[in-house]
Amino acid sequence: SQTxxxxxxxxxxxxxxxxxxxxxxxxxxxxxxxxxRQAAGRGLQxxxxxxxxxxxxxxVPQNLSASRPQDRQFILSSKKLLLxxxxxxxxxxxxxxEAFFGQGTRLTVV
Amino acid sequence: xxxxxxxxxxxxxxxxxxxxxxxxxxxxxxxxxxxxQEPGEGPVLLVTVVTGGEVKKLKRLTFQFGDAxxxxxxxxxxxxxxxxxxxxxxxxxxxxxxxxAGTILRVKS
Lengths: 110, 109
Description:
The complex is a heterodimer.
Chain A: E1 3-7, E2 10-13, E3 19-26, E4 32-38, E5 44-52, E6 55-58, E7 65-70, E8 73-78, E9 87-94, E10 99-101, E11 105-109
Parallel strand pairs in A: 2-11
Antiparallel strand pairs in A: 1-3, 3-8, 4-5, 4-9, 5-6, 7-8, 9-10, 9-11
Chain B: E1 5-7, E2 10-14, E3 19-24, E4 32-37, E5 44-49, E6 55-58, E7 61-65, E8 71-76, E9 85-93, E10 96-99, E11 103-108
Parallel strand pairs in B: 2-11
Antiparallel strand pairs in B: 1-3, 3-8, 4-5, 4-9, 6-7, 7-8, 9-10, 9-11
């Protein structure tokens, strides 16, 4: 069966520090992968999506970047975090009829 | 600008009442999905609708896809406190999976 792992679950980082969130998928090959950010109690804002290794599409201009070094690995990064980068980040992969989400990372930039 | 507009944004009702959540767009979707999300967790799929005019029922939940495949609704009959959560609609546009802003539902006992 397919599973998706996202870590860490929570993260507190100072302003100006780097960021690396990792997401890996098991049980499927060549998945479409997504990074979303979610404000408290609100919908998901699509940040990046990837249809294959090295193929990244950015949806909104921001302080973040994404990479896909392997077929089932998707990484969200920043060189210098801003206060406004705080939020709940979700990784997802798209199956035939639904999206499967990781457990999310609660990022607090202080 | 949201590709998928959800309404209402927030709904607080008493146990036993009925409610409807709407998801509207000017875009045509090949399929539309509804998710429910608990705080601190990822969304979990409730249903996928594919055919225009399609109606699906999941116990007390009824989902409908508009004839033109631009809108959808979620109707809950006799809501229970366990229905409390964030309800999200989502649609696929090419390789992008986009979500509505969500409806926060609170069912009071």
